[in-house]
Specification:
Chain lengths: ~450, ~230
C-alpha cells in the first residue's frame, strides 16, 4: 500500500516536469487530454478490485438504527476507500506543482475540485454497476474501441474530451457540472439501496447458475489433466482469476509499444526486444504462475491430504503455464509484420519463459504466503506479502537475466547469437526440468506447514 | 492402523496437545470428544500432517506421515470447508476426488446413487456451486466425498454439526454401516456426546490437550461422559 502511495506521489510531482520539459507540451492540457481514458480505466479497475461496502451492513440491520442512516453510512464510508484517497496522492502534488509554476491558484483549485468530483463519481458508478457484467463489458468495449480508433488515427476522442476537462480550469462554473453529476449519482445509488435493504434482496450475494464446462477431452493427458481441468474452471468462474486472462491479452499487445514508434524510440536498443518477447508470451506466466499455489489457498488442506503428490500438482501448474505461453506465442505471430528479427525475439522469449521462467515462478511460489480470496476482491493491489523480499529477488532474473544473456551473446556475434544464447538457456532449463523440479518439490515440502498456516489465517 | 508416540504440539509456551502414546487398531470406530480448544482439530491435523508436530511421531500403517506421502492413498478426511472447492458443483467435486483416487466417473455416479436419501434431493443436479450451498449441504458433500474410493481410514471433524435432524440420523446409520467393515477405520470428533456414544466403539476425551479418558463404549458410557462434562 505504502509502495503505491509512494509511486503516486512521485508521479504527481514528477509528471509535470517530464511532460513539460521532455515532451514540450502543457502538462495540464496533456493530462486533461488523457483524463477520459484515465477515468474509464479507473472504473474498470475498480470494478475488478474494489469490494462492495453493502455486504458489511448486515450486523446493523437488526439494531435500532434508521434504514436511511445505514445506507448513508455504508455509502459514505466508501469515500475513504483506498481507491479515492490514492488519487489524492497523485492530484494534490500535481496541483501544487502547477501553482508553483505560475498557474493561477483559483483556476487550479477549480480544476482540482472537478477532478475530486469525478473520482467520487467513479466510486458510485462502480457501486451501481457492480455485478452487472453487461454494463461493465459495454463500458470496457467502448473504451477499447476508442483506444483502437485513436491508435489507427481514425477518430481521436481525446481531441473532444480534452477541452471538456480544460473547461474546468478555464471557467469555474463548469466545475459545478461534475459535482451535480456526483450528487445525482449519489441520490440514485442511495435509492437503489434503500429499496434493497433486506437480506433476501439487495444484501444477498448473487448466486450464479453453475456454468457447464466440458473438459473431458483433456482426460487423455492423464493425471495432469485432473488439475488442469480444475484450474480452467478456477480461472473461468472467479472474478479475480478471470482477470489473468484479460491481463495476459494486454501483455500480448504490450510488444506494440516496443516495436512501433509509439514509444518515441525509447526502446530501440535490440536488447529491449528480448524484454518485449518475454512480456508478450509471458502474460499468463506473470499473472497466474506468479501466484501459484495461492490460487488453491482456500482448499489447500484438501490438496495436502488428498491422494496427490506434490510433483503431480507442480507438473499440472507447469503444464498450464506452458500451454498458455504456447497459445500466446501462436497469437503473437502477428508480430511477424514487424520483421523476422522481432518474431525471433518473441519465439526466444517463449522458449525462455517455458524453460526458465516457468521454473522460477513455481520456485517463488514456495515462498508466497498470501492467500487469495477468490470470492471477494478485498485487496486493491495484491498483498504486500506477495512482494516480500524473496519473491522480489526471484522476479528479477525473470526479466533481466535474459536481457543480460542476450547482451553477452550479442557481443560475440550480433543479434542472432544473442537470441541463440537466450533460447539455448531456455532449452537447457527445459531439459533440466526434472532436476529443478526435485529441488522445487523439496522447497514446497519444507514450506508446507508455514503455507498452510498462513492460508488458514485469512479464511 | 494409527500409532502415536510422544506426540506434542506447542504454540509458544502453551501446549496445545500432548499425547504420550495411542494406538487405533484397524476397523475401529473411534470417537473424540472435548470442549472448544481441547485439541481435537489439532490432533486430526497432526494425523494428516497439516501441522508440524513439536515432538513425536504419527504413523499410519507404519508409514510416518511426516516423511512419506504414501498414507494419502488410504486416507480420506473432511475437517472443515477448506476441504471443499467452492467454485465446483458437487458433481464436479465428486468426480475430481474420484479422479484423484482412481475412481471413474461411472463408479462415482454409482456410489452417489447410494446416498440419494442422505442428500435429500438438495445436492445433485441443482446446477449450483458448492460455495452457494448452505453449511449443512456443504457438509453432506464433504462427508460423502470421503467415501469415494473406499479409503481404509476416514477422519471426520464434527460431521454432525450444521446437519438437520433427519440428516444427523442418516449419517449415524451410514457411519454404523461403515463400522461393520473390518477394514475401515473411522475417526470422528464431536461436541455431541450422544451421537458419539451411539456410533463409536471407543471414545476418548481430550481436555487441554491431554487425553483424560479412554473408554470402550458400553451402556454406561453416556452417563459417565455427562458426569464428566457437568463437573
Amino acid at each position: 500500500m505504502l509502495y503505491f502511495i509512494g509511486i503516486f506521489t512521485f508521479l504527481g510531482v514528477g509528471s509535470f516536469y517530464v511532460i513539460d520539459e521532455d515532451m514540450g507540451v502543457d502538462p495540464l492540457i496533456f493530462i486533461n487530454k488523457y483524463m477520459v481514458y484515465g477515468t474509464s480505466f479507473w472504473v474498470v479497475w475498480r470494478y475488478f478490485i474494489q469490494k462492495m461496502p453493502v455486504l458489511n451492513v448486515k450486523a446493523l440491520l437488526s439494531l435500532p438504527v434508521k434504514e436511511n442512516t445505514i445506507v448513508h453510512y455504508a455509502l459514505g464510508r466508501t469515500i475513504f476507500s483506498f481507491f479515492n484517497i490514492s488519487n489524492a496522492f497523485f492530484f494534490v502534488p500535481f496541483s501544487i506543482v502547477l501553482v508553483n509554476n505560475g498557474y493561477p491558484i483559483a483556476q487550479v483549485l477549480s480544476w482540482h475540485l472537478a477532478i475530486i468530483a469525478i473520482v467520487f463519481c467513479t466510486n458510485y458508478i462502480n457501486i451501481l454497476i457492480n455485478d452487472r457484467n453487461d454494463v461493465f463489458y459495454a463500458v470496457a468495449s467502448v473504451l477499447i474501441l476508442f483506444a483502437g480508433l485513436q491508435y489507427y488515427d481514425v477518430f481521436d476522442i481525446t481531441q473532444h474530451m480534452g477541452p471538456v476537462f480544460d473547461s474546468f480550469y478555464n471557467n469555474p462554473i463548469y466545475t459545478l457540472i461534475p459535482w451535480l453529476i456526483l450528487i445525482l449519482l449519489y441520490r440514485s445509488t442511495f435509492t437503489h439501496f434503500t429499496h434493497r435493504m433486506y437480506l433476501d434482496s439487495g444484501l444477498q450475494e448473487v448466486k450464479k447458475e453453475a456454468q457447464n464446462i466440458q473438459l473431458g477431452w483433456l482426460n487423455r493427458f492423464g493425471r495432469t489433466a485432473i488439475f488442469v481441468k480444475n484450474d480452467i474452471k478456477l480461472i473461468l468462474r472467479n472474478k479475480r482469476s478471470k482477470m489473468t486472462i484479460w491481463v495476459s491479452i494486454g501483455f500480448l499487445f504490450y510488444g506494440l509499444l516496443f516495436f512501433t514508434d509509439s514509444s518515441g524510440g525509447l526502446y530501440n536498443a535490440p536488447v529491449w526486444k528480448i524484454f518485449a518477447g518475454i512480456f508478450v508470451t509471458g502474460g499468463f506466466l506473470f499473472t497466474f504462475g506468479q501466484y501459484v499455489p495461492s490460487w488453491d489457498s482456500s482448499y489447500y488442506p484438501l490438496m495436502m491430504s488428498q491422494n496427490i503428490v506434490y510433483r503431480e500438482y507442480l507438473n499440472a501448474k507447469w503444464a498450464m503455464i506452458t500451454i498458455a505461453t504456447l497459445v500466446s506465442t501462436a497469437l503473437g505471430s502477428f508480430y511477424i509484420i514487424f520483421g523476422w528479427d522481432v518474431y525471433a525475439a518473441i519465439l526466444t522469449g517463449a522458449i525462455y519463459n517455458i524453460g526458465v521462467n516457468g521454473h522460477l515462478v513455481l520456485l517463488s511460489g514456495a515462498f508466497i504466503k498470501s492467500p487469495i480470496d477468490l470470492t471477494s476482491t478485498t485487496k486493491p493491489f495484491g498483498d504486500k506479502q506477495a512482494f516480500n523480499a524473496k519473491t522480489l529477488l526471484l522476479s528479477l532474473p525473470k526479466l533481466f537475466l535474459p536481457m543480460i544473456l542476450y547482451f553477452i551473446g550479442s557481443l560475440f556475434g550480433g543479434e542472432w547469437v544473442g537470441y541463440m544464447t537466450v533460447a539455448f538457456t531456455g532449452l537447457l532449463g527445459f531439459f533440466l526440468k526434472n532436476k529443478v523440479f526435485n529441488w522445487i518439490e523439496t522447497l514446497y515440502k519444507v514450506e508446507k506447514y508455514k503455507t498452510l498456516e498462513a492460508y488458514k489465517q485469512n479464511s | 492402523m494409527i500409532r502415536i508416540e510422544q506426540l506434542t504440539k506447542q504454540y509458544g509456551e502453551t501446549i496445545a496437545l500432548n499425547v504420550p502414546e495411542m494406538d487405533i487398531p484397524k476397523g475401529q470406530i473411534f470417537g473424540l470428544v472435548g470442549n472448544n480448544g481441547a485439541g481435537k482439530t489439532t490432533l486430526f491435523s497432526l494425523l494428516l500432517d497439516l501441522i508440524q508436530a513439536t515432538e513425536g511421531t504419527v504413523t499410519i500403517d507404519d508409514i510416518p506421515v511426516h516423511s512419506s506421502e504414501d498414507w494419502k492413498k488410504k486416507t480420506a478426511a473432511f475437517l472443515d470447508d477448506s476441504f471443499l472447492i467452492g467454485y465446483l458443483t458437487p458433481e464436479e467435486y465428486f468426480y475430481f476426488i474420484g479422479e484423484l483416487r482412481g475412481v471413474s466417473k461411472e463408479e462415482v455416479d454409482e456410489l452417489l446413487t447410494g446416498y440419494t436419501d442422505f442428500f435429500n434431493d438438495e445436492i445433485l443436479n441443482k446446477n449450483k456451486y458448492i460455495r452457494d450451498l448452505s453449511k449443512g449441504n456443504q457438509k453432506k458433500v464433504g462427508v460423502v466425498a470421503t467415501f469415494i474410493g473406499e479409503p481404509e481410514l476416514l477422519i471426520l471433524d464434527e460431521p454432525f454439526a450444521n446437519l438437520d435432524p433427519t440428516t444427523q440420523i442418516r449419517l449415524k446409520e451410514l457411519l454404523s454401516e461403515k463400522a461393520k467393515d473390518a477394514n475401515k477405520t473411522v475417526l470422528i470428533s464431536s461436541h455431541d456426546i450422544q451421537h458419539v456414544t451411539e456410533v463409536c466403539e471407543r471414545i476418548t476425551v481430550l481436555e487441554k490437550g491431554e487425553i483424560v479418558k479412554d473408554l470402550k463404549t458400553t451402556s454406561k458410557t453416556l452417563k459417565e461422559l455427562e458426569t464428566f462434562f457437568t463437573k
